[in-house]
């Protein structure tokens, strides 16, 4: 009852507020917002308990009328029950209509005194016949009347959102009963009077406690909605000045709103996307469809799009929209083009895993490749292997011809190793003149030994660097 989703379409109000050059009195605005939400909360609470309140009043009137049947003219009893039922029906309907209009522009808040007068009127109407007939009733009927009035006093809990009305209700019923009992006996019995005073006090205390809780909830609601207004303004700034965009879909994952930046990226207009499935509009991504069907919050879901500018990567985050009744209404979220970030990350990853000189996987990457091969071997029956190579006679190359010639030799060695290994494994440089080959499928030991012999033979062939023949 105390939560309302913030529709993304309200962003127009935030845009006007952001564009205004006049300073905004946020304190005054929040004060008005809290007052409006307080009234709406009282109206909603009254409507929530209105059916129970009306049914309790009519049921108690029927019981009292049944008890007085035969000792009071039946026409008075029927007329009284009918008036009680009609008055409570009108009150219940009025409360429901007021709750339906709460928060709308056409809604006109009622003055607080109106609820007090309504409570006094309903309580007075209900107690008029029992008060008038109490003195003439036998003791067992008087007990029924007293019990019914006590039950009606307890229904003041339904008016807890309007404390003054609840107090008026309790006071009217308590006073009516005391008046009826006073004129029904020689004097007011102090014990019975004290009992009803105690009952009224307990009712008043309970109403006060509940009212305090409701008021606290309404204050939280007012603060939350004020914060939501600020968030809308921030999202408006994010959308129009940032690098991201906003999106919203309904419960069927159909596009309700999508930013112009996203439509420009897709090369389609807003009207072409509105009402269509968001996963389909983004290329039929199954991952997005599964997440939306789960109705759970998600963040940083990356997907690739085919656009007029080529392949682009976007990142989406979203939260489900739940209405006041707890019903799922769709998703709302943000998106961002992360193509440049992703490419940068890929370049950094490649640099971190690659030996710059040879272009082969470096020591760290070789360790990862070996770890993957060992994991596959542990989970199956296929053994793996790793070969280590150290170049003999390489140091004299650097000493004799210089490091540029030595680097050229290492590049040539890397090329020959990759050519010989082919698809059977991964060649990496461990550092200096040391290399390693990770073989995922080493079921044939003879094949591994043959590969090793071919590698030795390939490296033994002379290298021709700038018309210089070098052997290692």
Order of secondary-structure elements: HHHHHHHEEHHHHEEEHHEHHEEHEE
Percent of residues in beta strands: 5-15%
Structural class, by secondary structure, is alpha+beta
Distance between the termini: 83 Å
Overall tally of domains: 3
The poorly predicted ranges are 1-26
Give the tally of β-strands: 10
Defining key terms:
472 residues, Beta-Lactamase, Alpha-Beta Plaits, 5-stranded antiparallel beta sheet, 3-stranded antiparallel beta sheet, 16 helices, 14% strand, rod-shaped, disordered N terminus
Give a description of the structure.
It contains 16 helices and 10 strands. It folds into 3 domains: 222 residues, no CATH class; 103 residues, PAS domain (Beta-Lactamase, 2-Layer Sandwich); 117 residues, 2-Layer Sandwich (Alpha-Beta Plaits), CATH 3.30.70. Helices cover 61% and strands 14% of the residues. Helix 6 packs antiparallel against helix 7. With 472 residues, the chain is α+β, with helices and mostly antiparallel strands. It is rod-shaped and about 130 Å long.
Q: Layout of helices and strands, plus pairs?
A:
Blueprint: H1 11-19, H2 26-68, H3 74-101, H4 112-133, H5 139-154, H6 163-184, H7 190-241, E1 244-249, E2 255-258, H8 260-266, H9 270-273, H10 278-281, H11 286-294, E3 298-307, E4 310-322, E5 328-337, H12 339-353, H13 363-378, E6 385-390, H14 395-401, H15 403-421, E7 426-431, E8 434-439, H16 445-460, E9 463-465, E10 468-470
Brief description of this entry?
The protein is an alpha+beta fold and 472 residues long.
